[in-house]
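Technical note accompanying the year-one report. For the benefit of new consortium partners, we illustrate the data format agreed upon in the data management plan: each record pairs a sequence with a structure-token string. No post-processing was applied to the example shown here.
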Amino acid sequence: MANPKVFLVSCGKAKPLANALKEAIQEEKVAKVEPWYTDDHFVAGKSTQDALLEACKYYDIALVLLTEDDLLRKGRAAARAPRDNCIYEAGLFTGALGLEPERCLLVSFVERKALPTDLDGIGYIKMPKPNRGEPLDEKWLTENCFAEVDKIKRSIRQLGLCHTRPFLKFFTKDQLLDLEQPKGREDGKLTAGEAVVVNSAEPIEQKDMRFARTVMDNIFSDVKYQYFFHAQKTWATRFVLLFRTLVTVGAIRESKKWRPEDINSDAKFLACLKDCKVDARTAIERTRK
């Protein structure tokens, strides 16, 4: 049986560690590992995005090395975080490798709570914390990470080749908003009776009222929505927040005070909600369907 092909993602500063990890995995001929900086898809004249999309079609597994490179501030708190491009590529490969998020393995020096919730469900291997100023190279990996490297090898053996690779199209939020409408409106592709399947840690419509309004318009036009919160501990809370948003928007939609231009104005939206006399049961019943 052919060995799986593994794409290794890292930031530029972590190249010595990426090289060491590659050699450790290939030592037992578990897989063919290719770091991003030696991959043949990244050639002059081709954009990084195009190269990544080509790589998504070729590799069976993605190893994403997350090192503490940036300082991330949340309110008054600060924490070390990986480079944005590593997070982006983790999400990209998760979608590209089918409905098996574990095919994207996060080899992380960063605490899981410091990572975006969209990465929940992805394979996560926590690396030991190095001493301050200690170089992350082959010597350090050999002396400190035997158990972690062994776990990576076992995961690769278990995953094997990817046979469920979908064909991906990528859309911006505005493009998705145009497409996710009934036929005859903008670039809409939906008809009554069809279903929209959403697999996301945090659906756009949970926070974007404009998108929530589009979803409720579709639901009232007999388009069904199915939501999957894959392998998330907080799925119940997120579902309640999503449901509350949709029902609120649906109730206002049923009132006579609905004005599309007000939907993204918090003040006008709250005023409309306060004045809304229509019971929300109609919106709830439509959402349940």
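Partners are asked to follow this layout when depositing records. The longest strand covers residues 61-66.
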